[in-house]
Amino acid sequence: MELDKLVDLIKSNKALNVSVRLGILLGLYYVKSAWFKDLIESTRLNKAELYQHLKAMHKSGYLKISYMPTPSGKRMRVVITEEGEKVAREILKLLGKSQ
Prior knowledge:
Elements: H1 2-12, H2 19-31, E1 33-35, H3 36-43, H4 47-59, E2 63-70, E3 73-80, H5 82-98
Antiparallel strand pairs: 1-3, 2-3
Helix pairs in contact: 1-5, 2-5
């Protein structure tokens, strides 16, 4: 059953076995990149919590984190990687088939 495959994929993946991380990954799949500030507003997490989630997904290779200089200081930019897009596509495929 496709739902079983989806549950196994998420449970076996430490970077995605937290619902907020899964939500961030799927959101970035559609927009491709986002500023840290925008992710704070979207997720309503505090800075430390969001950073820890992004760091875990970055470590797994799903996200690329870079810092861009701006007139008001450095800003964090988060971009989904090819690996992140691959996993997001697989999750969305399994979600579509499980309905």
